[in-house]
Amino acid sequence: SLYEELETIELYMQIESMRFDNQFSFEIDLEQSVNTNNIAIPSLLLQPYIENAIWHGLLHKEGVKKIIVVIRQINATSLLIEIIDNGIGQEAAKKLRSKSHGKSFGMQLGANRIKLMKNKDGINGVVEVIDLKNENDIAIGTKINITLPILGVPKSTSTT
């Protein structure tokens, strides 16, 4: 369920924050009307995006570092999850990545998983990566928009 995924993501961000001497802060902004227990989401779907934001966006940045995860229901069939960081941006991260260890496949695998999600109305998941820039066209972070079809959580037959 979305509830379990958000718990996992929060724990992951806590661990990474401790690992990097609390260099960054994070926040999960959940719209009150979203029933996280009744929305199905594959396990660890969001983790590669969070990891990418931390490792490639925030750790190379000076000053205040932050990740915000926003979850809101767009309509009866779609959920929007935004992962926003105030890191160095995609262009600078790509340059650093090419110097070190090449391309990371976590986000691509995540995008493929999301595109395969489809609800009973035939609505697929979509991932959009947006470079955030200030008025001087300077990178001020990255926003990942993940639009998911709302899938119900299967009814469990056991209580374990």
What does this entry look like structurally?
With 160 residues, the protein is α+β, with helices and mostly antiparallel strands. It is 32% helix and 28% strand. The chain contains four helices and seven strands. It has helices at residues 2-19, 47-58, 90-99, 106-116; strands at 25-30, 39-40, 66-73, 78-85, 126-133, 139-149, 151-152. The strands form two sheets. The chain has a five-stranded mixed beta sheet, covered by helices on one side. A two-stranded antiparallel sheet has the order 2-7. It is globular, with a radius of gyration of 16 Å. The two termini are 16 Å apart. The mean pLDDT is 86.
Short characterization:
This protein is of the alpha+beta class and 160 residues long. The protein is built from 4 helices and 7 strands. A 5-stranded mixed β-sheet has the order 1-3-4-6-5, with helices on one face. A two-stranded antiparallel ribbon has the order 2-7.
Poorly predicted spans: none
What about the largest sheet? 5 strands, mixed
Helix content: 25-40%
The dominant shape is globular
Q: Strand portion, in percent?
A: 25-35%
| Number of helical segments with 4 or more residues | 4
Q: In terms of structural class, how would the helical and strand content be classed?
A: alpha+beta
Biggest sheet strand order reads: 1-3-4-6-5
Total count of strands: 7
Question: Gyration radius, to the nearest Å?
Answer: 16 Å
Task: Calculate the mean pLDDT score and round it.
Answer: 86
Rounded to the nearest angstrom, the distance between the terminal CA atoms is 16 Å
Order of helices and strands: HEEHEEHHEEE
